[in-house]
Design goal:
Blueprint lengths: L1 H43 L9 H47 L14 H9 L22 H9 L2 H8 L1 H12 L1
Function: Troponin I is the inhibitory subunit of troponin, the thin filament regulatory complex which confers calcium-sensitivity to striated muscle actomyosin ATPase activity.
Pfam families: Troponin
Keywords: Acetylation, Actin-binding, Coiled coil, Muscle protein
Length: 178
């Protein structure tokens, strides 16, 4: 038990020593960053001296405005380059993923969705037209043709056969023949 206690105490002592070292390193890094920031600002941003006359002040404003435009153009260029490289990285990682061939298709869930909901999902807030598919169907009017009229007038052929079948039907046929 004494050995266990000693090992536990030693482990805790080592942990606390490591934490103290980490805290001191973080503090050193923060101080170094602050010094680096101060050096950069001193190098790139000279102290501002405001001129006394109005014309000199306007010239200073024009210079500052020109610098701001240059910085904005540079920032925009770097953003475009970053987006381009991100897109290239994404494409390359997709190609690599496809070449490995070890991808699983996710299980698809069946979703009931009306045509309106589907258009709203695809088009977003632009979709304002209500799409009732049944309303757009073509109406077909059934026209009575001469053949259908003739068939209706003749009636059901089964009735005629039933009447003529058997002895009663033959009797009727015989009487009709006379």
């Amino acid at each position: 038990q004494k050995k266990r206690r000693a090992a536990t105490a030693r482990r805790q002592h080592l942990k606390s020593a490591m934490l103290q070292l980490a805290v001191s390193e973080i503090e050193k890094e923060a101080a170094a960053k602050e010094v680096e920031k101060q050096n950069y600002l001193a190098e790139h941003c000279p102290p501002l001296s405001l001129p006394g006359s109005m014309q000199e002040l306007q010239e200073l404003c024009k210079k500052l405005h020109a610098k701001i435009e240059a910085v904005d153009e540079e920032r925009y260029d770097t953003e475009v380059k970053l987006q381009k490289t991100n897109k290239e990285l994404e494409d390359l990682s997709q190609k690599l993923f496809d070449l490995r061939g070890k991808f699983k298709r996710p299980p698809l869930r069946r979703v009931r969705m009306s045509a309106d909901a589907m258009l709203r999902a695809l088009l977003g807030s632009k979709h304002k037209v209500c799409m009732d598919l049944r309303a757009n169907l073509k109406q077909v009017k059934k026209e009575d043709t001469e053949k259908e009229k003739d068939l209706r007038d003749v009636g059901d052929w089964r009735k005629n056969i039933e009447e003529k079948s058997g002895m009663e039907g033959r009797k009727k046929m015989f009487e009709a023949g006379e």
